[in-house]
Amino acid sequence: MSDSEPCDDCGEPTTDALSRTVRLTVDRSQIDAQRLCPECFAEWIDRYEREMQSETQVISDDGTDIIVD
């Protein structure tokens, strides 16, 4: 990437020093990667925290997880 690439969310140019990259991997295979400016990264973190604080419960029993919605 050059020194000033656009944010994948808002499109504003962001220098490498300020950008953050969010990567989604499943079983060691990269599914998606997004380069985000500081503001969009903060919004992404807030959204992630809200979604993870849902009513979903994870019950572990003998090393297996059961997800209850």
TrEMBL record:
<dbReference type="Pfam" id="PF24453">
    <property type="entry name" value="DUF7569"/>
</dbReference>
<protein>
    <recommendedName>
        <fullName>Small CPxCG-related zinc finger protein</fullName>
    </recommendedName>
</protein>
<dbReference type="InterPro" id="IPR055991">
    <property type="entry name" value="DUF7569"/>
</dbReference>
